[in-house]
Write a structure and sequence with these properties.
Length: 130
């Protein structure tokens, strides 16, 4: 008895598109907020990292003084071998750690970059054209 006209079917589809677009917009906003929270956590982590590096520097000075103590202990017998061995060990360890740190810094992706791009693309496709 009551038949649906094509206009009402199109209106329903447009409403669903608008609703879906709104939901994707909400998810997009939430992901941006989460990204901001992660950025704040990263800043906190950076502070902890700096404090850790200062602590490692102090420990490094302690290790250096230990190396000097070893060199002084072997001063009369094998001073060059002791100094050369300690120098080679510390230079190799430092170079390896610098390489590892640079490799990790270069290979870190931006957080949620691909997800945000896909959500923007979905929102654009579902937004009703005016």
């Amino acid at each position: 008895m009551a038949e649906k006209s094509p206009a009402s079917a199109g209106g329903l589809f447009e409403s669903l598109k608008t609703l879906t677009s709104g939901l994707i917009g909400i998810v997009h906003t939430r992901l941006e907020l989460l990204s901001n929270d992660v950025a704040e956590a990263r800043a906190h982590f950076t502070t902890l990292l700096v404090l850790g590096l200062v602590a490692l520097f102090c420990l490094g000075v302690g290790v250096l003084l230990l190396a000097i103590l070893i060199a002084v202990a072997f001063w009369d017998t094998h001073r060059l071998a002791a100094l050369g061995g300690l120098m080679a060990f510390f230079l190799a360890a430092g170079a390896g750690l610098i390489w590892l740190a640079m490799h990790k810094a270069r290979s870190s992706p931006r957080l949620f970059e691909s997800s945000l791009a896909e959500l923007s693309k979905d929102r654009q496709q579902l937004t009703p054209e005016s």
